[in-house]
Amino acid sequence: MDFSTTFKICGAGLSAARARLDVVTSNLANVNTTKTEDGGPYKKKSVSLASEPVEGKFNSVMSDALKSVKVDAVTEDANAVKMTYEPGHPDANADGFVAMPDINIMMEMANMITASRSYEANVTAFDATKNMALKTLELGK
Among 25, 34, 63, 104, which residue's CB has the most CB atoms within a 10 Å radius? Predict the structure, then answer.
């Protein structure tokens, strides 16, 4: 396997981790948003990841062993709404209930930590590959 294939895999991992971090950030920022452009409360989003084959020189030999990651979809959870009793809230209905996003802050923080660790692992792999490539170039001197 050449170094460029490893760099592509690391780059795909970095993109996937960033997408996860972006969605977690959006969910946390909108934890109390009761009105959106659609008219209802903010709906929790989640990222679906999928594997994809890596195109490269050794693709025929390692097609089953070597996979990359891609963001498959960013979906909204339509059922992630909770009714909270707040009669003084401007968005309360006639019974005093407000439709709020059903976002668990602890779960979002755990997702943020795992996405952050994934990002760090991909940076480490990228850096290790870069160092191996540099050492290989030094052997030619």
Answer: 34
Sign of CA dihedral 109, 114, 119, 124: positive
DSSP 81: E
Contact indicator for 81, 24 with CB cutoff of 8 Å: no
For 101-113, what is each residue's pLDDT tens digit?
Answer: 999 999 999 999 9
Task: Say how far apart CA 76 and CA 30 lie, in whole Å.
Answer: 13
Half-sphere exposure of 32 (CA within 13 A, CB side): 2
Average pLDDT, the chain: 89
Residue 84 DSSP SS3: strand
Residues 34-72 pLDDT 10s: 998 888 899 999 999 999 888 766 556 666 678 889 999
- The predicted-structure confidence for 11-34, as pLDDT tens digits, reads as follows 999 999 999 999 999 999 999 999
Residue 75: beta bridge partners?
Answer: 46
Give the tokens for residue 79: 């059922």
Q: Are 72 and 48 in contact (CB under 8 A)?
A: yes
